Amino acid sequence: MRSNIRAGRLTLLALVVAAPLLATTPAVAQQSPVPFDARRGVFTFATGLEQALPAVVQVTTLGQSAGPSSGSNEPRPMSSGSGAIIDAREGIVVTNNHVVEGGRKFTVDLADGRIFDAVLIGTDKATDLAVLKIEAPSVPGLGLSQIEVVNSDSLRTGDLAFAVGYPLGLDQTLTMGVISGMGRSGMGDRIEDYIQTDAAVNSGNSGGPLLDSRGRLIGLNTAILSGGGGGNDGIAFAVPSRILMYVVAQLRETGEVRRGATGAIFGSLNAERSRDFGLGIVRGAVIEDVAPGSSAEAAGLRRGDVVTRIQNRPVSNAGTVAATVGIAEPGARVEMVYLRDGREGRTTVVVEAPRARTVVSGREAVMARGLAARAASDGVQVFSVEGGSAAAAAGLRAGDLIRLVDDSAASGLAGLAAALEGDGRRVLSVMRGGEPVEIILP
What share of the chain is helix, strand, coil (3-state, %, to 5)? Predict the structure, then answer.
């Protein structure tokens, strides 16, 4: 035991003594397990991170106050969060949709104390992303910084991660953790493919960047799981840069996000449905129906198939499929692994361009405005609601039984499809837990 302790001490001493020498040249310093600042004699990640910190901003959303009116029409601060400048020349800031939602005006505070007005370029509720543009970014001497963005597909569980933002009313704050997992979902049938980290993320961090150890943006912090107090419990989620940059590009170009499609209607696998299928898994996306003439039909997919992998990534639920297909360009080929009657199959689906039609109909299911429904004995039952969709915003839930649409009976799938076709508001009368509920679809 004593000799082992002595050997350990000698090894540690050798590392400490050698660290300054290892950092003397770039070639040798790269071999050091942790960056070492020879001048100060400390291990640090500051060199890479300090380049990114000036581009992390505080976003303040101003809107109509909910309290008594003072006679002033000026908007007042209603929420705040964080953001990241990803294009200094154009003054482009990315943040969360829930940070800017409902706002009339927006301000961006820089780490050096300067403050600018910003305009909203666009939002995407399904991924909880928003793009702002700092006004007059071309003013001489403005000196904006921007964060380098890298593809999140290169991440591995165990990589160091740093969350930056303005939590709990504090000034800019940096916390460190690791990548706890990839491809996280399960918080609803929505566009989900999150990076999970244990870096401390609290209220106010929303919209701030998740950085790698070189200070490069790998994701945007968007949600936490908390034990009830609303604070940090070491489980936080970030939208990966792979999805972030696709959404930002579309919002900058058109002001909205148009997602690819396959013609398949997906639901999430759960324990009950897994037993029905005789499967030993509870993660996957169930194909509820396939639209005639769609690319999914051409790929040989059928109702009842359970997709377990897509583009070599494990599928947790329907949101995982939506996240992958939704950022694929029309014409892209997406590989899927699925189970059918207990046997594994593989196919390639060609992504279709977004359809102008508001309703996708199959033989056994209908999808419209973010809801997916199948026929039931006493009406039409919703089995999936896409996060960020019109149906989700209206408060529709999986399990709701649609009885009426605009005072007309929802007579089967064909009747529901016809009633929801086209634009305009629809009033749905649904039964939820035995109680009637009115849902207004915008």
Answer: 20, 35, 40
> DSSP class of residue 352?
B
Could you give the residue numbers annotated as active site?
A: 98, 128, 206
CATH classification (class only), 359-441: mainly beta
Residue 22 has pLDDT above 70, yes or no: no
Architecture of the domain spanning 264-350:
Roll (2.30)
184, two tokens = 């996280």
- Those residues with Cβ within 8 angstroms of residue 420's Cβ, 6 or more apart along the chain or in another chain: 358, 359, 366, 368, 369, 405, 426, 441
CA–CA gap between residue 318 and residue 266 (Å, rounded): 6
The length of the chain, given as a count of residues: 442
* Residue 341, token pair as written in the block: 């009657």
Average pLDDT across the chain, whole number: 84
pLDDT category at 5 given cuts 50, 70, 90 is very low
In 3D space, the residue among 182, 176, 174, 178 whose CA is nearest the CA of residue 159 turns out to be 178
% the chain with pLDDT above 70: 85
At the second CATH level, the architecture of 45-65+75-255 is Beta Barrel (2.40)
Which pLDDT band, with edges at 50, 70 and 90, does 229 fall under?
Answer: low
Same fold, 264-350 and 359-441: yes
CA angle 116, 134, 165 (to 5 degrees): 75
CA dist., res. 405 & res. 402, Å (int): 8
